[in-house]
Amino acid sequence: QVQLEESGGGLVQPGESLRLSCAASGSIFAIIAMGWYRQAPGKQRELVADINRGGGINYADSVKGRFTISRDNAKNTVYLQMSSLTPEDTAVYYCNMRAYSDYVRHDEYWGQGTQVTVSS
User: Fold this and answer.
1) Rounded CA gap, 32 and 107, in Å?
2) Banded model confidence at residue 101, pLDDT cuts 50, 70, 90
3) Which residues are CB-contacts of 7 (< 8 A; sequence separation ≥ 6)?
């Protein structure tokens, strides 16, 4: 069984920063990619950023230059450093991981979500 434990959400004012962390544990043979999605009220869940095992990174256009994704392979942990936050960044942020559990089988996993609220 695989678990994703998120931390770091909260309430901040516009312009401030926040750092999210997501640690994966359990039956993980090899991680394909880890990343962050978010879902604001009334909107679809969208990709914020992800990083694959080769180090390739994708960012949503709306966060480029403000958010930085990084990972610690030894800890199976991914981080999202968020800066210059705006109210439009308010959402539930979900950690996502695609990983092999053995040589053949791979699955997608989701964290429980952490609320990020940007408000003055």
Assistant:
1) 10
2) confident
3) 20, 21, 22, 114
